Structure formats: C-alpha cells, structure tokens
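subagent[fold] <- orchestrator: predict structure for attached chain, return tokens only, no commentary.
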Amino acid sequence: MKKLYSVLALIPVLACFLCLFFFRQVPKGELWKGFSVLYVPQEVPEDKVFEALNQFDVREITCLSNQYLPIDLKADSCEISLLSLNQDAMEYLQRRSNFFFDKNKNLKLYYVPVYYKAKLAQAASYLNKSISGYCGVDSKAKYPFLIPLFALAYAVLLFFFSRKKELYGVLAILPVLFTVSFPFLSSEIAVLILLTVLFLLSNVFGRRDFIKVLTKKYVFMLLLLLAFVSVIGSGFRISVTFVLLFLAEYSVLFIFRQFQIVRYKKNHFNPVMIRSSFSIPQYSGKEWLVFGSLLFFTVFSFCFSIMNSGLSGSKESLSSGKVLLPSVSASQKSAELPELNDYYQWDFLVRSYPYRSLNKTTDMDSVSISRFEKTSGKIEKSVDSLEYSENYREGVYNRIELLPFNAFEKIMKKQGQDFSAGYSSNGSHRLSLFCIIISFIQFTIILAYFAWIMISDKNVKRRGRK
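subagent[fold] -> orchestrator:
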C-alpha cells in the first residue's frame, strides 16, 4: 500500500514539471520579430514624422497612410468595384488598421526593420524636442537571467550549510526551476522565502516536534502567507503552478521518508535521533548568514525588477501603466487584431464575392465562375472553379511578397505561419503597485528579523564575556 502511495505522490511532482513548462511566462524580446515600432501621439502631423525619419535616413516604413488593398487585382475589376458591398471583407480591413494604433487609440504606430533601431531612436528624440506630446521607440526586453541566478546562488549557499544535503538538494530543484519559468519579482521573493523554509525543514526533518518548530516560526508563516498573496495577485498560471509547487514539495518529503524507512530496514544498525527539534541549532548556527543572504538577494531582486519593467521611455506608461501596443509577443491574443488565416479568408471573399449566389446565406468554400469566349465565330462557355483549400492559402501566402507596397501582411508573414497578436506593454513584465507594496512589506519583515538576530547575537556574546 505504501508503494502505491509513493507512486501517487509522483503525480503532483509531474504536474508541477508540466506546468513549469507549459505555463511559463517570460519576456519574449521585441514586440515584433525583425521590426521596431515608433509610437507618436495621434495629433502629430504625419508629414512631420516623415520629415524626422527622412532626416535620419530611416527607410522601408510601414504605416497606415501607405497601406492599400493587399491583393493583385486591378482597381477597375469587378471584384474591387464590389468590395464596398462586401461587409465581411471590409471587416478585415478595419481590424487590420488596429495594428497602426495602441489599444486606446492615443498613439499612431510606424513599423521599420530592426536594423534602423538606432536611427529610429534618434528620430524619436528629435521629434520629442519639436512636439508637445511624447513619442518613443519600443524597447527590446531581454530574459532576466539574474532572477533565476539569484535563486540558484541562494539555494547553493544554503546547500553547503544544510545538515541533510540530500534532502535539501532535492527540495530546492523545483523552486529554482519555478524562477526560470516565472522570472518576476513576486516569484523570486516567494522562492527565496520558500528556500529558507526548506532549509530549516531539512535540518529538523525526522526529529521529534519538527512540525511544531515550523509552526512556531511566526515570521516564516507570515512571509509565506505574503508570498502566496503576491503570487496569486500576479496571475492565474503562476498561482496554479505555485500551489502545485507546494504539493510537489510535500510529495518529495513523503517519498524521501519512504526511502529512509526502506533503507533503515536493510541496515543492521541505525542511529536514533534522541534530541528534539527544539534542542538543536535549527539554522546550523548560521542565522546571520542565512538572513543576511536572504536580505541581500531580496534587495537586488527588487532593484533589478524595478529597472527592467514597463515600457521603456514612455511617460504615460510610467504614470498610468496603460500603454498597450500590438505585439506578437503578447501573452494573450486579441480578437481586434487579425491573423494570417483571416487574410487568406479575406482574399477568397474578395475574389469570389461577385460570383456567389444571392440565394445562399451560408458561407461557401467554393464558387463556380462562368466565362464566355468567342472562338471561330462562336461564343463558348467555360466554367472555372475557385476553392478555398490548402493550396489556395499557400498561393495567397506566396503572393504576399509580390505586393507592390509595404503591406502589413509582409510583417505578419515574417512572424511565422502560426502568427497571432495581442496587446503588450513592450513584451516586458510590468510591475503592479500591489506587487511592489507586498514585496516592500516582505523586505521590511526580513530586515527587522535580521536586525533582531544581530542584536540577540550581540547580547549572547556580552553575557558570555561576563
């Protein structure tokens, strides 16, 4: 029966690993692969923007004013002539225009290839000096490697001072991986606190009253509660994974205990832990080092997260946090922004609309086009078939590069076939005021406890001298 329990205990561990992989949330770099975005207030005249871009030799600009119908049909063709009557096709064009504005329609966007990034920043700086509003360039958010490195460094430090290195080493793996999948301030401080609790737990695990020792560490209980609150306030995915992390750690303890029992039964002699958990140095005599390191890594995590969050260079984003730009790196796709598949459907609707039967209200994936030609003095009829299929979509995809202007579909194509877009604050993690407040409270508690440890240690040394 115990073997069955041990096997079942692996389920939370495996579930946690899966969530760490599938639910991960990390900054994904620039808003658009291969392109930089200039954002300018809507009231700024477009000729002024182009003047600044030309002055700094920025070319290959994609903006709303240089967009045309993304299809290789003549303007006087019946398909284009009837386009205004085709409501479904017009909807795509309206949604397509959303790519050239922020979500609140306060900013107008200009896309240029990423190799103009430096020149684009100069043009933005020039515009800021000549307009009353504020414009800027999207920043390139990088993966915050220091966040998981802080957690790893702290885990390794505690590992060296742990009394049961095997147990602590196994317990520390999942929390460190948690910061790899969620490299944010809330997860970082929560993991640092959890690693400290696991360090204490590994030192007293198996002794009498070791659970009482943990429950009487009121500072840790409060810090863990705050860690839960801060993580839950950071989103659904990270909350579910954090709860699974706790269940997985409990499962690891259970499995480790079962291995201990099996090993004890095989040995002829086993040492018995006589002293209770209260009578041994629970921090291995390194309280000042443990909490000093915890305080150090908490401060650095806080400072690093503050410096690497939000929309770079935007006054509005810093004050309100509401600037959201179309982005391929957004965590959630938006229905307001079309995908490549929508473009394929639009192309088919435009080409097939004049030949659709008015008696059919359902969507048609194929239409027949009757053509009449005069051959040898006779008028002959031929029927062509237009079918919305994989081959049709592939043909539309291949014709995108042949469009004779800087169509936004060319940017969409460079994002990949599975392209989808949503709104993002520059692809970086934006710290909420709630997260900052909770993190500051945690820092204050750790600082106060560290000060109390130092004062207590000094008092003990003075009594020893007397």
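orchestrator: received. Logging for downstream: The beta strands are 35-41, 107-113, 136-137, 325-327, 366-375, 378-387, 422-424. The two ends are 59 Å apart (CA to CA).
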